[in-house]
Design brief:
The structure is a single chain. The chain has 13 helices and 14 strands. By secondary structure, the protein is of the alpha/beta class. The chain has one domain: Rossmann fold (3-Layer(aba) Sandwich). A seven-stranded parallel sheet has the order 5-2-1-9-10-13-14, sandwiched between helices. Strands 7-6-8 form a three-stranded antiparallel sheet. The two termini are about 20 Å apart. The relative contact order is 0.15. The mean pLDDT is about 95.
Length: about 325
């Protein structure tokens, strides 16, 4: 069993690669829900949906999020009525949000709904929300405190970031399924996917039970860098690091996770940073980490699994 902590697009790519290498019972994904919000009366779970669409081959290949073969009649009709259109929901994607909202309103948990949606999408491995309770990522900026989607989508990550709150996380309970995965005696590695550390992974780690379980696990904990050559593979990671006064590099990411990590994977472009990261008392491996084709994803997944195995042998 390998457990992957993941956000949306970047994490989903690695998870897809791992799903090509491992059997469904050998892989579990613990997904960020700090991005979740209510829009137009609907409960939106962007990272859960990106993971589901990616693993079911339903994702829009051009964006890495949303559904392929999408249409936009709902948004066009909403715009004609003067409605809010800054967060765009495609017609096919809309069905997921309507059904999730209906079932939450009927008293089902997010975990149970996600498990059923995965089954209907033909996904065999578990995608586990980090909690069934409400946790919301709040970004402190030079324009005040902003909820995640306002910062990320409406403001296009333009505001200068000064800090973060993960509202609800300190008191949130994780789910029985997540607890079981992290306590599994067969667990061979815990992988922090190449997702944004602040926006996608830290909300998961902000739940005390999850952080404690990771710290207590005998399985090696490793991260795949989301920064290559000082630039983020996706999203505003490097921009945020600069604004917070952190080093926008793979070494900066390793330092951010330092107290949790046993190992770190960085791109061959950043091989010169290996010694700096090793000085943080973690094993380092270098490979090509940019995932464009399914071959790239599978190769990096296999490399990550083999690196984890090498740490267990030491």
């Amino acid at each position: 069993m390998i457990a992957v902590l993941s956000g949306g697009v970047g994490g989903a790519k690695l998870v897809l690669g791992m799903s090509e290498v491992l059997a469904p019972q050998e892989l579990a994904v613990i997904a960020n829900t700090g991005d979740d919000f209510v829009h137009l009366g609907l409960r939106i779970s962007p990272d859960l949906d990106t993971l589901m669409y990616t693993l079911s081959n339903e994702v829009n290949p051009e964006t890495g999020w949303g559904r392929k073969n999408e249409s936009w009649q709902f948004m066009a009709a909403l715009e004609a009525l003067g409605g809010e259109t800054w967060f765009r929901l495609g017609d096919r994607d809309l069905a997921t949000h309507v059904e999730r909202t209906r079932r939450l309103g009927a008293g089902e948990t997010l975990s149970a709904i996600t498990a059923d949606l995965c089954r209907r999408f033909g996904i065999g491995l578990p995608i586990l929300p980090m909690t069934d309770e409400q946790v919301r990522t709040i970004i402190h900026t030079d324009q005040g405190k902003l909820d995640f989607q306002t910062y990320f989508v409406r403001r296009q990550t333009r505001p200068v970031v000064t800090g973060f709150d993960y509202s609800g996380a300190p008191t949130a309970r994780t789910t029985a399924q997540v607890t079981e995965v992290l306590a599994d005696p067969q667990l061979e590695a815990i992988v922090l996917a190449p997702s944004n550390p602040y926006l996608s992974i830290d909300p998961v780690l902000a739940i005390p039970a999850i952080r404690r379980a990771i710290q207590a696990s005998p399985a090696p904990v490793l991260a795949v860098s989301p920064i290559v050559g000082g630039r983020a593979l996706k999203g505003p990671t490097a921009k945020i690091m600069l604004e917070l006064g952190d080093q926008p590099s793979a070494a900066g990411v390793a330092r951010h996770y330092q107290e949790l990590l046993d190992g770190f994977i960085l791109d061959t472009v950043d091989e010169n940073l290996a010694a700096e990261i090793q000085a943080m008392d973690m094993a380092v491996a270098t490979t090509q980490t940019i995932m464009q084709s399914i071959g790239d994803k599978t190769r990096l997944a296999r490399f990550t699994i083999e690196f984890a195995a090498s740490m267990r042998k030491r």
